[in-house]
Amino acid sequence: MSRQVWSPTRNLDLVTVNTGGGSLTLYFGDGTGKFTRAQEIPGIHGPASVVAFEANRGRRLDLAVVQAKESRLVVLENLGGRFKAGRTYEVGRAPHIVTKADLNRDGIPDLVVGSFARHTLSVFIGKGDGSFHNAREFQVGRFPHYVGVGDWNRDGHQDLALVCAGEDAVFILQGDGTGNLRKGGTLPTGANPHGIAVADVNGDALADLIVSTRSSGELYVFLGDGKGGFAPLPVIRTDQDIIALAAADFDRDGKLDLALVSASHNSVVMLQGDGKGGFLVRSP
Predict the structure, then answer these.
(1) How many CB atoms neighbour CB 105 within 10 A?
(2) Is 167 helix (H, G, I), strand (E, B) or coil?
(3) CA 102, 104, 108, 113 torsion: positive or negative?
(4) Cα–Cα distance, 226 to 153 (Å, whole number)
(5) Terminal CA-CA length for the chain
(6) Per the confidence metrics, is the pTM higher than 0.90?
(7) How many Å apart are CA 202 and CA 17, to the nearest integer?
(8) 30: helix, coil or strand?
(9) Is 33 exposed, middle or buried (CB count within 10 Å of its CB: 0-12, 13-18, 19+)?
(10) CA 174, 177, 179: angle at the middle one, nearest 5?
């Protein structure tokens, strides 16, 4: 799912993938927190994930969709809220999650896609006109899932934190500002890590990582030191199959909270932050 503005009203909209249905669904927001209209974008066989990005240097918002079975990335060009298929790009077999970043510091969106079958990360450097250079492929751990983006060592270059489910770990990848990546270490987790969020959970103005595991039902919080390193806090038990998470100050108390998507319970679980990196189940 991706959140952006496509309609002329400038309200926040949503786009979701329908993997079994071979389509995307675009939901238009009404500005009050409701989504009153839906537009189907058909003909996208086997979409695995989608992300919105600014094309033509911010003049429009296009979509990039991963097609897992075809092992390709498809760009959908925005024609005033209607989309048509544009260029396609080859990517490693069984691609999964696509993430937006700016890895060469030119202000133009780049895309990063993990491959389940090849255990690689493909980096597509944006040209600024809605198209991308062919992929640079980097070998990573087994079954790369979600990617967190931030500047872990504060050198001005964007870095990545890649969740590798087959390694039970998060791979820290350091960027050099040209689109290249090198491994900067690993952070061990419980079994089958999946979701990741980047946020400042303890108020020290440094990027921290929160990682969920599916099989072991745990939440891992790693405090960033601003030098590229991360220190683990005590593991938080959720006893749920958390596939994705988001961090924000949901109760406006000045401390970051978490929203966890539980596949085993078909629900969203809210955790209240204590401002130090700890989280408790939020009272109803």
Answers:
(1) 14
(2) helix
(3) negative
(4) 5
(5) 26
(6) yes
(7) 34
(8) coil
(9) exposed
(10) 80
The residues pairing with 23 across neighbouring beta strands, listed in sequence order, are: 18
User: What does the DSSP 8-state code read for residue 125?
Assistant: -
Read off the pLDDT band of 71 (50, 70, 90).
very high
pLDDT for position 9: 55
- Whether the CA torsion 205, 268, 16, 39 is positive or negative: it is negative
Give the integer Cα–Cα distance in Å for 222 and 225.
10
CB 256 within 8 A of CB 199: yes
Residue 257 contacts residue 270 (beta carbons within 8 Å): yes
Record the tokens describing residue 150, joined without a space. Answer: 């931030």
Q: DSSP for 67-104?
A: ETTTTEEEEEEESSS-EEEEEEEE-SSSEEEEEEE-TT
Q: Which two tokens stand for residue 280?
A: 């408790």
Q: How far apart are CA 180 and CA 104, in angstroms?
A: 8
Residue type for position 191: A
C-alpha span between 248 and 130 (Å, rounded): 30
The token pair at 124 is 């597509």
SS3 content of the chain, % helix, strand, coil (to 5): 0, 55, 45
- Dihedral sign of CA atoms 127, 50, 88, 76 in order: negative
Instruction: Taking residues 158-172, report their average pLDDT.
Output: 98
**Backbone φ, ψ for residue 167 (5° rounding):** -105, -10
Contacts of 159 (CB under 8 A, 6+ apart): 149, 150, 151, 152, 153, 172, 173, 174, 175, 184, 228
d(CA 159, CA 224): 13
**Nearest-angstrom CA–CA distance, 186 and 171:** 5
